[in-house]
Amino acid sequence: MSYLDKLLQGVEVEWKPLGVVCEIKTGQSVSKQMISDNPGVYPVINSGREPLGYINEWNTDNDPIGITTRGAGVGSITWQKGKYFRGNLNYSLTILNDNEIDCRYLFHLLFYMQSDIHALCTFQGIPALNAGNLKNLQIPIPPLSVQKEIVRILDSFTELTAELTAELTAELTARKKQYDYYREKLLSFEEGDVEWKPLGQVLVRTKGTSITAGQMKILHKDGAPLKIFAGGKTVAFVDYKDIPDKDINREPSVIVKSRGIIEFEYYDKPFSHKNEMWSYHSKNENIDIKFVYHYLRINEPYFQNIGGRMQMPQISTPDTDKFLIPIPPLSVQKEIVRILDSFTELTVELTAELTAELTARKKQYEYYRDLLLTFPKNNIES
Predict the structure, then answer these.
(1) Closest by alpha carbon to 235, among 265, 205, 262, 204?
(2) Could you tell me if residue 381 is inside a domain?
(3) pLDDT tens digits for 47-81?
(4) Residue 203 belongs to domain with CATH number
(5) pLDDT tens digit string along 315-326?
(6) What is the residue-wise DSSP string for 222-258?
(7) Which among 41, 113, 149, 202 is placed 20 to 30 Å from 10, CA to CA?
(8) What is the DSSP string of 326-339?
(9) Is 304 inside a domain boundary?
(10) Whole-model pTM above 0.90?
(11) 83-86 and 39-45 as β-strands: parallel, antiparallel, unpaired?
(12) 60 and 119 in contact (C-beta within 8 Å)?
């Protein structure tokens, strides 16, 4: 028999309404203006998982469990230790008898029962959770010693996940700093060291296709071969027959995202883009288009500053056509591309590792949480 089986074997579990074991109260009214006028060190817990801000007064101490009462995050469980200000969109759940329920056990339990809590919410108009409904939520109460052991196990998983996240995030941050350092060094050229020419003079600028965001949604097919770019991260995959052949670009290119979020993207498969954007490719044997992409990426703040002068951030073709780029020997360009691409690949691999590790930890936590917090529903008080 496993340790978990022994822990839960023969355990007598009493079920009680949440309102019988906790006092459920609403916090005090608060606003962003109130926080702005009274800045301080105490977190304001209101309708989100994260603090709304920090204020110079507190109304709650050593009473960490809360539940969001209204808005998009309705029913979310919050945990805030120490002194803080609880807003009017957050219920406090104050345990009436510490010898009956462990506070941290109740937090894990409510987090596990999130779907039951959401079932109590109303979603007509502004989503809301009524305190009267919440008070009737039936919760399992095993012996206090069992509760504490459940907390120990689940908190251990939480701490391991936090440590792993911190470790891999620190590694990612270090990689990014290293990448930024070498990119700055590799792409810094003095005025007399290399030849400088306007971008539009040495590259071929291509137009996009006449297509709307709505048409992109209609034409999109998973697995289709042709990628259509719009602003930001918006893309669609379509068949070749879906747009005119003259609008398809088959050259490795730098795509200029010229409105809203101004940035550059490299793509080396057949593509097109909305016609308010444009792209560049190289027919010049002395210019590596991927090198140009890296140089433009490091200069994105310059173009974003130009675009920021407009009501809707945007740049025009002369802004990029007239932009001077350095042209070192082709062998130097290719070596710079190789080094920067290697850093990018390492970052992608590390990000994938972080995601996979966190996913595995989350599944492991959820497995044990489900095992530890699933009790037979008998002896329920009405």
Answers:
(1) 265
(2) no
(3) 888 899 999 999 999 999 999 999 988 999 999 99
(4) 3.90.220.20
(5) 999 999 999 999
(6) TT-SEEEE-STT-EEEE-GGGS-GGG-B-S-EEEEE-
(7) 113
(8) EE--HHHHHHHHHH
(9) yes
(10) no
(11) parallel
(12) no
